[in-house]
Design a protein that fits this description.
This protein is of the alpha+beta class. It is built from 2 helices and 4 strands; from the N terminus they run αββββα. A 4-stranded antiparallel beta sheet has the order 1-2-3-4, with no helix packed on it. The longest helix has 45 residues, at 2-46.
Length: 122
């Protein structure tokens, strides 16, 4: 009888636990987007209201985009340096660029570079 009660309690708690994990992912995603918005606003304030360009130019070994430097090579194997990105100084480093809800193992999500699997359109 005790095992039956424990089984029933577990059956009731598992869906609630899954919903709380989804809620935590949504909250983290919203917080990440909020941080991107704040970083963009600070950039605009520091640059006379001008927005950062999508690309800042080609270097001798890659290209600098608004999100960082991307080196040459095959998808998923290119070197990447986020410190060259326009918003990096305002984001206090890295960590918010990954969307916690996206399943990066799906075929439609490609790693652009080694260590860079950005989920917010980067």
């Amino acid at each position: 009888m005790v095992i039956g009660v424990i089984g029933n309690v577990a059956a009731l708690l598992l869906p609630a636990l899954a919903r709380s994990k989804d809620s935590a992912r949504r909250t983290r995603c919203a917080r990440n987007l909020h941080q991107f918005g704040l970083a963009s606003q600070m950039y605009w304030d520091d640059n006379g209201g001008d927005c950062f360009r999508y690309t800042f130019g080609i270097t001798n070994v890659g290209q600098i985009y608004w999100f960082g430097w991307l080196g040459p090579g095959a998808e998923g194997q290119r070197p990447f340096d986020a410190t060259q990105g326009a918003l990096f100084p305002y984001l206090q480093g890295r960590g918010i660029e990954i969307c916690p809800s996206l399943n990066y193992s799906l075929a439609q999500f490609k790693l652009k570079a080694n260590g860079a699997a950005d989920g917010y359109g980067l």
